[in-house]
Queue: 3 jobs
Job 1
Amino acid sequence: MLTTLAIVHVDGDWQVVEGVLSKDMATLGEYIETWKLKLCTTKSVSAVFHLSNEAKGELTVNHNNITLPFSSEPKYLGVTLDRSLTYRRHPKSLRNRLISCVALLRRLAEYGWGAGATTLRIATLALVHTTAEYFAPLWCRSTALLYSVAALLYDVALKPPH
């Protein structure tokens, strides 16, 4: 069973944040050990979200004497986050995923494969629309992000091949 977890602490002092998060990771480590679970250290990262342009430090959070890597743009549930939570990086990663989905659909639509209109419609709904609509409730509130997602949908999915 795969579980996604975020541990959050808000404070103005970075050392306090590091201490609290390291303590929380120790508590999590005890829980993991008790229930014979394993933490995926390759996907576990520390990150900082703030609006200050001057604060450019990195957190040092430890788990079992291992320092978790710091990520300035972590991915959480498939969404790329930035330090001020504006979600401006997400459309770029969304575009890359849509490009691969549309490339697959274009291969299906080639004459040799013989995929019919119904098959292409179902494949488009399954691949392109679900990928584009994931996380839409948040990015659709921003006009700039909505425009960039709509533009990338046009660029990737609606333009005819050259």
Job 2
Amino acid sequence: MPVIAPRILGALLDGVVSAHANYHSVTLEKLPRMADFARWVVAAEAGLGWQRGTFIAAYEAHRQSVERDAMDRDPVARLIPTIPDLGSSSEWSGSPTALLRLLVALSDEAQWRAPEWPKAPNALSAHLRRVVPVLRANGYEVTTDRTSTERKVTIRRAASSSSSSPSSAGPTAKIQPDTTSTGDERDGDDDV
């Protein structure tokens, strides 16, 4: 380890120098979460020996993997794609009670007896509100409507999954050439 430590430090410092030189010329077409962090890493790509776009591609692939995993881990969300009407009409609509009964029928006893399983229609509605972002990221929209006489849950399958649609493709980055600098001169802006 002591033999390679200086090389590791040198490589990291190359990344820092590159990030500092390129930061102000990086533009992200679509801002991801932690946008400032993403901008710094994109600016450091050249100094780290990475091809342009490497970080954003890895970041987006990881984000999509996390969204799929979150859906797979949630006892209710993982059953949404198995609702029969979503396959034929791309929409299911009914009361929270009807949805709870349907989900129980689609699950096995171990699932609906688990402590995290919603036991009542109002608990199911609350659970669905919590997992709306996970469902949306996986191509499903959940809406609720309440009138004085009834409550209604509508689940729609999007035309295409968010992980493959071009409109929700991950952020992309560009590094604009800095036309104000002639190379090694500093612009006096040392805010790293």
Job 3
Amino acid sequence: MIEDPYIRLQHQIQNFVRFCETVLKAGTVKKISLITGYDDKTQLADIAEKLDELKQSLLELDVELEVKLNPNIHDREIRLDNGWVIKIGRGLDFYQKPGGWFEVGANDLTLRKCLETKVDTSAEQSVLDLVGPEKRASRLRRGSWFRASFFVTGMGRVRSAN
């Protein structure tokens, strides 16, 4: 499930399409759920048209896209069905909109300018039990969470937040 209030504009929806493409390559996904927001300036028909096109494209690959609109959401997170939670301060909108669609970085996101953001990943203890004690910090107690943070800066450079 993806909660991101800013999947509204062309480049934001394209970021979401890229996210869906990444998810498809990574595993056996059957359903993607998106909860996004809107305000008075949002062109709901335009968003619906673009997301319906993506929905049809995903259906051809046997993946269901569920979209819900909620004007009150603020926080951004990606919740995986295996217990992992990814919180990105700016959501999927940390890639800046390119100045033009024919400039370097318009298609290759490793060259696209980014807004600085913090990314937190966490998993419940039950998930960590599955990977075994050698893969997790020894100081974790039952019911606790594993957490790692890092920043994305500049042109997609990553640095530790710790």
